[in-house]
Amino acid sequence: MGLFTCSKNKNKKAVNFGQNNIITEQQEPFKRLRILLLGTGDSGKSTIIKQASLIHGSGFTNEERTFYIQKIRLNCIEFSQELLKGLEQFNIKIEDKQTQEYINFIDNLTDEDAKSTTNILIPALKHIWEHEEIKNIFKRKNEIRVGDSAEYFLSQIDRVFDDEFIPTNEDILRSRTETTTVSEFNFSIGSSFVSLIDVGGRRSERRKWGNYCQDINAVLFVSSLSEFDQNLYEHSKQNRISESLAVFGEVCGAKMFQNTPIILFLNKKDLFLSKLQTSDLSIVFPEYTGSTDPSEAIEFIKNKFIQASKSQKNQQREIFIHVASATDISLGKEVFSDSENSILITSLKKSGLL
What we know:
Layout lengths: L14 E2 L14 E8 L6 H12 L5 H28 L7 H11 L13 H10 L1 H7 L11 H5 L2 H4 L8 H6 L8 E7 L2 E7 L4 H4 L11 E7 L15 H14 L8 E6 L1 H7 L18 H16 L9 E5 L5 H8 L6 H8 L4
Parallel strand pairs: 1-3, 2-4, 2-5, 5-6, 6-7
Antiparallel strand pairs: 3-4
């Protein structure tokens, strides 16, 4: 894939997430750690930045919450449009006139319509979500591109489109925002300052990775456990977890990361456990002969990533693997808190960085 032809340009700009976490020159005597967040699209990297902001920053500002009002409303429109695409994909016909009017209305909505709470928008979104055929399409959501938070938001249309709506922390964590710019969040752990740098994970964004791999102390690679039965948005024939394994193997084999600790964060455990009830892991991995027991399935996927890390020549590095759900606020504290037992501190200590 050729992801890591490192640029020597150190003037690349990153967007700081959180105004109160910028490291000043007076703080330079403290140890600085730069952690690069990598992973394929929709793995949940941006949610990890949001979690770090909640735990180590001042939380989400009023300005940010106002921004997410429109973002979440737009998510609801996008989720509905994605579900409606399933009608054509699965050759489903809906005959009743009222539903057809709502379908035509939603299909033609634009980003600007997320700013509106017109009399037809709210009933249209609710009607479509509650329609029996749409519910049947949603049961096959792994076959279409629909966001992980579709059910969460579409079942709360009245609240989301209320004039007094202010997004909660959970709402913001669950909102979908594609990363097309580089964001950076800075915080302290003990006597160390940590910079988390997030770059886009879609194929079109990965060519930028090489611009940010200099002076990196650790890589935090994020992969979604729940994507084992889904294909890429940008390549409908490529399985997502297979893509993630391939990219992870290349990260581990990259020359500039030869002596860089790599932390693997297997994300969306909650969605993975739910999917195991209806999707068989062996469809993607024929060699899997285990049961639907979550522990057995997760251990199998862990081993697949360990194998990928050693697929390159002379790769015998230790990988620090953790399993969690980035949208879970309590689990976020397990990852990023100042506690001696937090996932981040434990991994950095084992790698000799703390």
